[in-house]
Amino acid sequence: MPVKSPCIGTCVLDPKAGHCVGCYRTGDEIGAWMGMSDGAKKRVIANAQKRKSQAPAKHSVD
User: Fold this and answer.
1) What percent of the chain is predicted at pLDDT more than 90?
2) Could you tell me the pTM of the whole model?
3) What is the mean pLDDT of the chain?
4) Exposure of 28 in the CB half-sphere (CA atoms within 13 A)
5) Does the residue 48 lie in any domain?
6) Secondary structure (3-state) at 13
7) Is the separation of the CB atoms in 20 and 13 below 8 Å?
């Protein structure tokens, strides 16, 4: 079964953080995604999850 893209449709690259604010992949990772092997995609997803876990908490505005 192919590895599904982690894209959630919030495609905005944070220039300060260097990754997408939706899926936490870098621009290079997003651009290369279609040509990656499933193993490479899994590594990208693991790295993106690590970035997400290390990202500052987002505060909602009430």
Assistant:
1) 84
2) 0.85
3) 91
4) 4
5) yes
6) strand
7) yes
Tally of domains within the chain: 1
Half-sphere exposure of residue 51, counting CA atoms within 13 Å on the CB side? Answer: 17
* Structural domain harbouring 42: 13-52
The mean pLDDT of 27-54, rounded to a whole number, is: 96
Q: Is residue 42 part of a domain?
A: yes
**7: its two tokens:** 């894209």
Burial environment of residue 44 by CB neighbours within 10 A (0 to 12, 13 to 18, 19 or more): buried
CA 6, 40, 52 angle in degrees (round to 5)?
40
Q: Helix H segments across the chain? A: 27-32, 38-54
Please name the amino acid found at residue 41: K
Residue 43 banded pLDDT, cuts 50, 70, 90: very high
